[in-house]
Design a protein that fits this description.
By secondary structure, the chain is of the alpha+beta class. Helices cover 25% and strands 23% of the residues. Helix 8 (268-273) links the parallel strand 15 and strand 16 (280-281).
Amino acid sequence: MRTYDYVIVGAGSAGCVLATRLSEDPAVRVALIEAGGPDTAQEIHIPAAFPQLFKSALDWDLDTEPEPGIGNRRAYLPRGRMFGGSSSMNAMIYIRGNRADYAGWAAAGATGWSYDEVLPYFKRSEDNERGEDAFHAVGGPLTVSDGRSEHPLCSAFVQAAVQAGHKPNDDFNGETQFGVGRYQLTQRGGLRCSTAVAYLHPALERPNLTVFSSALARRVVIEGGRATGVEVERAGTVGVVRAEREVILSAGAYESPKLLMLSGVGPATALSAFGIDVVRDLPVGQGLQDHYMALLNFRTGVESLIGAASPENGALLQSEGRGPLTSNIGEAGGFFRSHNGLDAPDLQFHAAPVLFHQEGLGPASEHGFTFGPCVLAPTSRGAVTLRSPRPDAAPRIVHNYLTTAQDRDVLVAGIRIALEIAAQRAVTDLVTGTFDTPASDSDADLLAWAQRTGQTLYHPTSTCAIGAVVDPELRVFDVAGLRVVDASVFPTVPRGNTNAPTIMAAEKAADLITGAAR
């Protein structure tokens, strides 16, 4: 295999951005290694079809170990295995997080990552159909648009939340995050706008960008304390893709730490137990965070998304870019406090015009709709560790969901807010019965129900965090020529959906790598 200036592992939300930005210099040779293949499946691009990708060949299809805080259930963790990564199978919600998140990062030593310092990178990526203002920009690769479905069941949720006393908010990325409303989405013309669509596809014709698809990264080659390449298995052949300048891991919060550990960078005792030579003793894989969500499901007589995949709706999507198939499912939501006195929200809601249960794997067998909270600033911490020294083995993942009293109390408070919203006329006029809700409004029943039915919100972060594994320029401590650029570097999980912050981090990293930020 050839030698390149930069070798990037993972063509996901961050990797597509990096490969595109670094290859803008025609004198630079860039290799992008992706375990999956091109994002050609129809279900990727039709927004409402993304749950059909779960447990398919396009999904890493991970599971946690038995989770002690949720009754020793194993939690299902879908992750995209294709160009665009999880941006090719997520709900397309464009949320940047809260100013307080980045203030906290900077205060803890992540120099250069305050809100005012990262805002230009959010704006660099953005092409917002609403136009330009103090918070938003036009002309970037990533199309950000208002949803085109506007399903009446999600409108009812927003109306009921306002009836319950919550303020409307038409821009969760603007002056304030608090309130309720509809989400802006990474869609273009009613179709998904992943980082593959926004960044990678236009760059594929560049002669200085080479993409190795269906290629499994086995380990980073580290020689004399420097990363010099990546060992790759492709079509049964193992070889090394060499990097003259840097190796960049953008494989996500589960796979990036796994690759580091397979390469000898991680907790020394754990690596030695697998017979892996320790290159650097670092807390790789520790500090795992995520948003845990609990959703109330109600029956209704209103037409839900069950019949969205009709020939008529397919034609409407293709000809006009509108209709039920443009629904991202989680069309609406909001940000709330679990109690007074908080300057930033600790709860986020999502509302969907269809039943969404059994971790998104349950059948939508009748008309229904769903909404509920997630713990937005969790205090629970988990870990990613090796299961085996084999590169094709899934890592061991324990999120430790709801293992702190604070997280349990916040979620119970969020479910109470959800029940208050459900009691408003805008919702009660549409409900014909409950499908999956708590047995009563006692704290014990609310918590037991959340532990039994809750799920990931698909936002794993912080397993290679700034200050623990990488420095503020995302360079792995004590290993030259090696960076990590994805959500694993976040010191804490942002207050909101993590795709936009991951894209921001990759935009910033491109400048850090090329020296443009200096």
